[in-house]
Amino acid sequence: MTEHDDEVSQSPRAPRRRGLFHGVRASFLTGLVVIAPIGLTVWLIWTVTGWIDGWVLPLVPERWQPEQYIGINLRGVGVIIFLIFTAIVGWLAKGLIGRSLLRWGEHIVDRMPIVRTVYNGLKQIAETVLSQSEAKFDRACLIEYPRPGLKAIAFVSSTAKGEIARRAEPDDPLISVFLPTTPNPTSGFLLFVPRSQLTYLDMSVEDAAKLIISAGLVYPSPKAAPGARPAQENIATRSTEAR
């Protein structure tokens, strides 16, 4: 083997150029990231609208069906009817007669062993989910769970009250926190944690919920410190100084 061959064999390999397939693949993945959320949102709205129409329209008398007037089965009419009907029922329930009828109906339901259990459970869920009160999670925090040394994100509800509050240390009150599960944050655990063991987070409750739902894949954007320059600007500055 000649000296020239040794130099050629020892020289670093030139980087391979990425082919056309790689560019098409990158463009496809980028387009998928853009289209997927929009497509899934449209599909979900379309599906829910059709489900509500299929549940509401059969209850409407045939002579009042939208097809009798516009000639086609227009999707979304059942949703409009449902919204109007629900608003009317809510308006009537606020009045004296509506409240009296509601109490009379609940009194009848309370006499039915199985029905009252189902009704009271669904009523509590609806009141919790659709409540218009100002009760909401205060802040996001870190707690040690499921053992010391491990951290988990939780949401601060309020300071413990009643018997639970009386069983806490006077100088370290108990705080009620909700520890959600991943990726379904609607389920979780109610924990009472001493205030000294809570580490409050700067991120909002919404950002913490996104982090939990995404299983740690979506982190909130860090807040830039006053006077700090963006990372791209710093990189450009260092590149200019190097030249």
Written account of the structure:
This protein is α+β, with helices and mostly antiparallel strands and 243 residues long. It is 51% helix and 12% strand. The protein contains 9 helices and 5 strands. It has a 5-stranded antiparallel beta sheet, with helices on one face. Strand 3 and strand 4 (188-194) form a beta hairpin. Helix 2 packs across helix 4 (77-94) and helix 4 (77-94) crosses helix 5. The longest helix has 37 residues, at 20-56. Mean pLDDT is 80; it is low at 224-243.
Keywords:
five-stranded antiparallel beta sheet, 243 residues, disordered C terminus, alpha+beta
Topology:
Elements (H helix, E strand, L loop, with lengths): L2 H8 L9 H37 L10 H4 L6 H18 L1 H14 L3 H17 L10 E5 L6 E9 L2 H5 L7 E7 L7 E7 L4 E2 L4 H9 L17 H12 L1
Antiparallel strand pairs: 1-2, 1-5, 2-3, 3-4
Helix pairs in contact: 2-4, 4-5
Summarize the structure.
The protein is built from nine helices and five strands; from the N terminus they run ααααααββαβββαα. It has helices spanning 3-10, 20-56, 67-70, 77-94, 96-109, 113-129, 162-166, 205-213, 231-242; strands at 140-144, 151-159, 174-180, 188-194, 199-200.
Compute the separation of the termini in Å.
41 Å
Number of strands: 5
Number of helices: 9
Query: Which stretches are poorly predicted, pLDDT < 50 over at least 5 residues?
Result: 224-243
Instruction: Spell the H/E element sequence.
Output: HHHHHHEEHEEEHH
Task: Look at the helices and sheets and give the structural class.
Answer: alpha+beta
Radius of gyration: 30 Å
Instruction: Please list the strands of the largest sheet in the order they lie side by side.
Output: 4-3-2-1-5
